[in-house]
């Protein structure tokens, strides 16, 4: 698997986990909540990938 594919797979895995957590913790699921959750999960996934790469490069 190439580097780009590995990074994409890691990003998607983090996004899926964070989005699932978001859906567990909100009380109502509507379009706006889903959009906000998806964006927040994407930001969190990018931060998690960057933090993991920063720690593994040491």
Question: How does the SSE layout of this entry go?
Answer:
Layout: H1 3-25, H2 31-56
Helix pairs in contact: 1-2
Task: Provide an overview of this structure.
The protein contains 2 helices and no strands. It has 58 residues and is mainly alpha-helical. The model has no long low-confidence stretch (mean pLDDT 91).
Kindly report the average pLDDT value.
91
- Silhouette: elongated
What's the N-to-C terminus distance?
23 Å
Largest sheet: none
Features:
elongated; 58 residues; mainly alpha; 0% strand; 84% helix
Characterize this entry briefly:
The protein has helices at 3-25, 31-56. It is mainly alpha-helical and 58 residues long.
């Amino acid at each position: 698997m190439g580097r780009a594919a590995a990074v994409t797979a890691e990003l998607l895995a983090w996004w899926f986990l964070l989005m699932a957590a978001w859906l567990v913790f909100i009380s109502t699921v509507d379009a706006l909540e889903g959009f906000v959750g998806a964006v927040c999960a994407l930001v969190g996934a990018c931060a998690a990938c960057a933090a993991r790469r920063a720690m593994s490069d040491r």
